[in-house]
Amino acid sequence: MLFNSISFAIFLPLVFILYWFLAKNNYKLQNIILLFASYFFYACWDWRFLFLLVFSTFLDYYTGIKIADSKNRTESKRWFWLSISVNLGFLGVFKYYNFFAQSFAEGLDNLGLHINPWTLKVILPVGISFYTFHGLSYVIDIYKQKIKAEKSFIDYSVFVSFFPLLVAGPIERATHLLPQIQKNRTFDYEKSVDGMRQILWGLFKKIVIADQCAVYANMIFNQSSDYTGSTLVLGAIFFTFQIYGDFSGYSDIAIGTAKLFGIDLLRNFAFPYFSRDIAEFWRRWHISLSSWFRDYLYIPLGGSKGGTWLKIRNTLIIFIVSGFWHGANWTFIVWGLLNAIYIIPSIILNTNRSNLDIVAQGKNIPTLKECIKIGTTFCLTVFAWIFFRANNLQHAIDYIRNIFKISLFKIPYFPGIGMATPFFIFLIVFILIEWLNRESLFAIQHLGKTWSAVTRWSFYFVLILIIYYYSLTVDAQQFIYFQF
After folding, report:
1. How many whole angstroms separate alpha carbon 49 and alpha carbon 30?
2. Which of 258, 476, 483, 484 could form a disulfide with 263 if both were Cys (CB 3.0 to 4.6 A apart)?
């Protein structure tokens, strides 16, 4: 069930009505409704994998209690590693087994030894990386005695499987979400209106920006050898906005939907393409994952407490693991490594935390120096996204090689470029709106609040019309991060 589908447009109001009108202020009944709704939502993808979700949930719930009730550290450690091993084992089998088997076979093939590896004929369970990380953080926090084990299986299950975040995040923490699940929730009109605005902007990002960019990015990437270097650059830029509109759009819809139920989720994007260096970019892109790796991998490895080489080692590890988390392909690992290489100079020079504020805060126009920094960071990011989007390493290398030809200085062209003019206008307007409202949690959070009611509602109506029009031009597209 896609957020940008008719089925979700029917599903969401029904759950909303049951939640607020049937359960009213009874949070226990509200949680039961959310749990059944979340399981139904997940079963719509593939009901067979619902059993895997339930098993993973029960495993972490049970081991969490056993860790908390252990009489000594040895017993606690035994239950802790059971949970970690099984969780990572499932993730490894479903997501990485075929990759390792095929890579091993290719390595032997290069040595002249030919084998036919046995591979799994199974699709990747949607959202497995996300709900696995929910459970891992919960168990780790109990083991480190940061939180107490949750005794209510219903409450814990809602934490893991809350449908807005179930398949593509944000990656929540028990310390943030569980307390909200465990208390009475009353309907907040202002929060719900704010949620609807965020849903609307998320749909605009997904349907108008991401899905239209996908058409042109796919056309150019899938036939990259047929296009000029300038067109390939344009294709990489299309994908850059596709993945941002797609994933941040999903996050906006998820966070906005949660607000309708009186629940706040972690912020996942903070206008990352306005970053002045790569370190700032990673503080603003997929924030819930970046902070997860910081807290559960980078800091345990020593974080920034050691010398420069230790910091570099830890940075390389988390970025390579981050790349590997995104998918079982060498392209993702190179993408992660490339971002690590980008950020290492700022670690050596100790400038990786020099841009903690919002760029050009309180101003509409940045300085020339800020423009150069934003432009440089954006170009580096676009280059790295080529590896993320490419089918394999050879495809990425060929794509980059074909960019740096004399045709780089030709005017970009692809079939239908003339018909894409209205979309280019919308893309420019989109960037402008995001820039002018970069100090908000999302671009239209406060936009129009000082306008007259007629003007404000006219703006919302125009957005809806644009979303509807573009939804007719392209079939509903699955969100990119569902494959991770």
Report:
1. 24
2. 258
